Every structure is written in C-alpha cells, then in structure tokens.
Automatic annotation (TrEMBL):
The gene is nusG. This is Transcription termination/antitermination protein NusG. PANTHER family: RHO-INTERACTING TRANSCRIPTION TERMINATION FACTOR NUSG, TRANSCRIPTION TERMINATION_ANTITERMINATION PROTEIN NUSG. CDD domains: KOW_NusG, NGN_Bact_1. Belongs to the NusG family. The lineage of its organism: Bacteria, Bacillati, Bacillota, Clostridia, Eubacteriales. InterPro entries: KOW (IPR005824), NGN (IPR047050), NGN-like_dom (IPR006645), NGN_dom_sf (IPR036735), NusG-like (IPR043425), Rib_uL2_dom2 (IPR014722), Transcrpt_antiterm_NusG (IPR001062), Transcrpt_antiterm_NusG_bac_CS (IPR015869).
C-alpha cells in the first residue's frame, strides 16, 4: 500500500470549515476511509485586547487552506479535488506535493491545544493613554514599551513633577 502523507488543499477563503465538513462527509459516503484519514483546518488561540477587555478567539493559521492526510491515488485525488469549495491542491501543475515531516510537525505543533495563546493588542508605542485602574488610576501617560506575552505595557506617567515609568496590565489602560 502507498504511504499516507499530508497535502495542502486550497479553498475559497472563509470556506475552510465548510470544506472540512463536506470532505469528511464525502469520505464517508464514498467509503474512502482507507485512503483519506484526517482533514484539518489549523487554528491557534489568540487573545485580542480591545478597549481594555481580553477576548480569546480561534484564528486560522493559514486562511484559504485545509490540510488533508491521505494516500494519494487517482480516486482519492478525485474525491478531494471535487469537494465543493476546493480550488485545488498545492503543488506544481497537476502533481500535488506532500508536506515534509518537518513542516507537518511545525504545523501540528502550532495547532496543538496546549500552545500558549498568541496576543493581539490594539495599543502602540508612543500612544497616549489614561490609567483607569490600580494604584496609578487617573494618571495619563505615554506607552513606552509593550509586553504582549505578559499582557502589560510600560507607561511613562508624571508623578510628583517627575516622569516615571510604570508597568500596568492592558486592562488598566485606555486610549485617550
């Protein structure tokens, strides 16, 4: 029996989950479980911080692409290629190129559930902010450094007539 590999399938953007569902149904109805094993839309957790509020969201790592673990043959290629929403395999010409084991490991590692969430912050360095909570409440200042992995920012505030750097949580500041 031929070896199974991971292949990258190009889809219409925004249709990744629909393609995954459609392909899984087709594998079942066409009895291709011996050739098409897993369909994956790689996702990662992302923490968005907007208006001082943290929200955990799932984000597609590769928008417009779905990964398929399969044994490549004429009939398995046909099933995947003719799934609604699929525009083709990634590869040269009509020959799909499988991912290398290193690429698969890197992608599946990023997709893993135990990975720390990626943080997206809507603050910028040199942005004026107001501290709205904590010991520096009601002070205004300018962001000098951002630490997304810690959920904090270093803000330069004026206290007692002096410029003082203070470290605050993103949830403790708002833009002015």
């Amino acid at each position: 029996m031929a070896e199974k590999h991971w292949y990258v399938v190009h889809t219409y953007s925004g249709y990744e989950n629909k393609v995954k569902t459609n392909l899984e149904k087709r594998v079942e109805s066409m009895e291709m479980q011996e050739k098409i094993f897993r369909v994956l839309v790689p996702m990662e957790d992302e923490i968005e911080i907007k208006d001082g509020k943290q929200k955990k969201v799932k984000r597609k790592i590769f928008p417009g692409y779905v990964l398929v673990e399969m044994v490549m043959s004429d009939d398995s290629w046909y099933v995947v290629r003719n799934t609604p929403g699929v525009t083709g395999f990634v590869g040269s010409g009509n020959k799909p190129i499988p991912l290398t084991p290193e690429e698969v490991e890197a992608i599946l590692g990023r997709h893993g559930e135990d990975k720390p969430a990626h943080v997206v912050v809507d603050f910028e360095v040199e942005q004026p902010v107001r501290v709205i909570a904590g010991p520096f409440k009601d002070h205004t200042g300018v962001i000098k450094e951002i630490f997304p992995e810690k959920g904090k920012a270093r803000v330069q505030v004026t206290m007692f007539g002096r410029e003082t750097p203070v470290e605050v949580d993103f949830s403790q500041i708002e833009e002015i």
